[in-house]
């Protein structure tokens, strides 16, 4: 469906570039000049169009980010997309009713259309065998198509004052007025107040709907509250990002926040903050990419920014990020290599019958392990980095006290696990070594203690070797 | 708790027919029956989570809506998303939400009750854990702690023993017996016939209709169990389908024809 929308924008010149340029940011000068003028006029003492644009975008980002957290947690992202598209005929209807593009009229129309669409979707779900995604698919594309037809009719008939309605497709916030900003601020504050007052209801019903109902929360209350809040956020968001992309402003910052935290209140605050950042950066990007007479839809740049933020977090988030996970995997591989070296050293100590001589030749270790000396040297470097062998001596390797203790721990894990497998899992003694080779590196301390209790503080492994303490 | 002539339907298809029950206070009751017998449906209907096609439910002599503070419901563990960003403590505190008016904050008193509830299920040490970092048995204990925090007189639990380890199962059982000793009424949907006999004072045998209800010693008999599990209620299912079709305004053709027991 974005294709239909594109065809409208691409086939025709923007009808009234003057209105968009009124903000004064698009000029012949290079892009950084426009951006620097925009940023400078944020910091002068006047509250002018630059401040309107910025605060408008930030307010929308906060409202959508905050409510988006609940949309994501309730797995209702598709509903956000559906309502986003479905508000388009309401925008045009609001224009027809008011006879002008007055923001409150357009937003009221959008609100009514959004709620109507949500109502029709709920009705279809209840009365047919169709699943929710099909119901949404049918309804929102239908509403959206009606909206496109209405806009096109108005354009073809040259209806006075209609120019610029397509801004609601992709969003263009540059040029909004102070009263619009105040309206956006009121919507954001109202949504924030609602979330604060109904926090417990939202939290419990998002986590466990049936439990919430069992404590006396009414299903209709939750449904109405959330659908209304969702629609209001979308309606507020369409000025900046347009009906096509507004779902992204709900979902992307919230999904980003979900990767960063596992507490609900932090997620909501983070999501709102990320929405605000995406809004502000997206505006600057839009101004930088615009050319004289040709604007760049802020919807695209804001959602693009939100997407970049998500990508960054996906890569580097402390617990869920890809890079930290890869780092931990690599670290674990190195640690395993070092632990294997220690185990081989410990076996050598056992053969020697004494740990007085702490020197072990690389070639000897390599021979025992059936590995190349170069590989053993790498293992030794990983062990040296952990302080298990003396860092000053490459060959022979010199075991430190810390290294000896660690070697005992690893061998102990290995032999405890072998014993567990033979005694409690009834495996034959010749089946257990390979398993223990791996398990010795991952056994957590509490599990080791549990094994000790279960095996009654054993002294020998199934092969008759002493379990070191 | 009293249930009279209760019929419940999903999408207009009756799944529970004309159930009559009067559970005395202070008993530990097991609800057993095969898959699709309507066990979960029964307790959801009692909680008022499902519309009733007929009949009524009373709890302590009043409709459920006026008695919600006295009734705690424990849903199936699989019914929620455990990656939800809350801690074990947050979940247990949800048990207090029904006791706090919407303008009031959760107070120190509520936190104290939540902490005690966590301690009773042996989970106090995990209070600040995010719930996805808990094992299945620990998650089930958190659900039970939430119910305890509600300080109710009637507890309805949907498969609290499903997928838990042996230690959790015996801990839960001890807890249920303590509740009963304290004079509370506990209804438990239970899947395991082997333990049902020793766990519960009374049993509800269910298979789309009430097969039997009474003290375990009286109803845990081969005949009644055979009626509950053995006799396939093909007729009842077919009639339920017919009711659903009629109610939905669909064509009155039998899809497969009635499968009589002789054909099986």
What does this structure look like?
The complex is a heterodimer of chains A (469) and B (264). Chain A has 2 domains: 2-11 and 24-317, ABC transporter involved in vitamin B12 uptake, BtuC (Orthogonal Bundle), CATH 1.10.3470; 324-454, Arc Repressor Mutant, subunit A. Chain A is elongated. Chain A is built from 21 helices and 2 strands. Chain A has helices at 2-11, 17-21, 31-43, 49-73, 77-86, 88-98, 103-127, 132-156, 167-170, 178-197, 199-207, 209-214, 219-260, 264-289, 298-316, 322-352, 362-369, 373-385, 401-423, 433-439, 445-454; strands at residues 359-360, 397-398. The N and C termini of chain A lie far apart (69 Å). With 264 residues, chain B is an alpha/beta fold. Chain B is built from 9 helices and 9 strands. Chain B has a 6-stranded mixed β-sheet with strand order 5-6-7-3-8-9, with helices on both faces. In chain B, a hairpin with a 1-residue loop joins strand 8 (202-207) and strand 9 (209-215). Chain B is globular. The model of chain B is unreliable at 257-264 (pLDDT under 50). Chain A binds chain B through residues 73, 75, 197-198, 200-201, 203-204, 206-208, 210-211, 213-216, 258, 261-264, 266-267, and chain B through 44, 47-49, 65, 68, 71-73, 75, 79-81, 84-87, 90-91, 94, 97-98, 100, 102, 106, 130, 132, 146, 150.
Features:
heterodimer, A: 469 residues, mainly alpha, ABC transporter involved in vitamin B12 uptake, BtuC, Arc Repressor Mutant, subunit A, 2 domains, two-stranded antiparallel sheet, 21 helices, elongated, disordered N terminus, B: 264 residues, alpha/beta, Rossmann fold, six-stranded mixed β-sheet, three-stranded antiparallel β-sheet, 36% helix, globular
CATH architecture of the largest domain in chain A: Orthogonal Bundle
Morphology call of chain A = elongated
Q: Give the N-to-C terminal Cα separation of chain A.
A: 69 Å
CATH homology group of the largest domain in chain B: P-loop containing nucleotide triphosphate hydrolases
